[in-house]
């Protein structure tokens, strides 16, 4: 057993444990922190597969940006026990049965795979140089079209989100109607 296999098993146990902690944590903030740990362990798996770019993107995008967004949303929400919808026994039973069925399908799908289908630390598929060559040589037109699409979406979001100063809001309309009503009475 080599060092890569030992690292694989350590990362596998850590990722399974942290994934279980995500779904069993009572506090949503702790659940998000365990999800960040899960993303780091998955990035470790990417590094073992010689896909450094995917590991770095996973850490930057998911563990960085998405998890910060989740933390802000969770902290802005009022997660009080009194406002939480109580789930009955039937809903828990249905959830357990659905999870068991999903696990059964997953085990059946993975049952026929080979043990050595992926060699650890071999190949150069996930290297940044090869990814850049394929991206800017074979897929340059779709890459540029997607960047134009994202730029258009950002400009559209800014235009939609910006409120025009000349258009009054509904609160201003209600105030002006109330002022008009009081002026007509007198």
TrEMBL record:
Cellular location(s): Cell membrane
Highest taxon in the source lineage: Bacteria
Reactions performed catalytically: a quinone + NADH + 5 H(+)(in) = a quinol + NAD(+) + 4 H(+)(out)
Keyword Translocase (UniProt): no
Enzyme class label: translocase
UniProt xrefs under Gene3D superfamilies: NADH-ubiquinone/plastoquinone oxidoreductase chain 6, subunit NuoJ
GO CC terms, sorted: plasma membrane
Stated name of the protein: NADH-quinone oxidoreductase subunit J
Summary of the function given for this chain in its UniProt record: NDH-1 shuttles electrons from NADH, via FMN and iron-sulfur (Fe-S) centers, to quinones in the respiratory chain. Couples the redox reaction to proton translocation (for every two electrons transferred, four hydrogen ions are translocated across the cytoplasmic membrane), and thus conserves the redox energy in a proton gradient.
Similarity field: Belongs to the complex I subunit 6 family.
Membrane topology, record value: Multi-pass membrane protein
E.C. no: 7.1.1.-
Transmembrane segments: 6-23, 30-49, 55-78, 90-110, 139-160
Entry keywords, A to Z: Cell membrane, Membrane, NAD, Quinone, Transmembrane, Transmembrane helix
GO-annotated molecular function: NADH dehydrogenase (ubiquinone) activity; quinone binding
């Amino acid at each position: 057993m080599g060092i890569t296999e030992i690292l694989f098993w350590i990362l596998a146990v850590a990722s399974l444990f942290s994934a279980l902690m995500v779904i069993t944590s009572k506090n949503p903030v702790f659940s998000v922190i365990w999800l960040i740990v899960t993303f780091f362990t998955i990035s470790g798996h990417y590094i073992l597969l010689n896909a450094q770019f995917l590991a770095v993107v996973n850490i930057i995008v998911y563990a960085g940006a998405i998890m910060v967004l989740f933390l802000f949303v969770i902290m802005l929400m009022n997660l009080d026990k009194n406002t939480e919808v109580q789930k009955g026994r039937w809903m828990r039973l249905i959830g357990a049965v659905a999870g068991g069925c999903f696990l059964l399908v997953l085990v059946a799908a993975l049952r026929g795979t080979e043990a050595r289908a992926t060699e650890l630390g071999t190949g150069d598929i996930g290297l940044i140089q090869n990814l850049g060559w394929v991206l800017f040589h074979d897929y340059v037109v779709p890459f540029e079209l997607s960047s134009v699409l994202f730029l258009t979406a950002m400009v559209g979001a800014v235009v939609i989100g910006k409120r025009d100063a000349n258009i009054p809001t509904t609160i201003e309309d209600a105030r002006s109607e109330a002022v008009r009503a009081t002026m007509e009475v007198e």
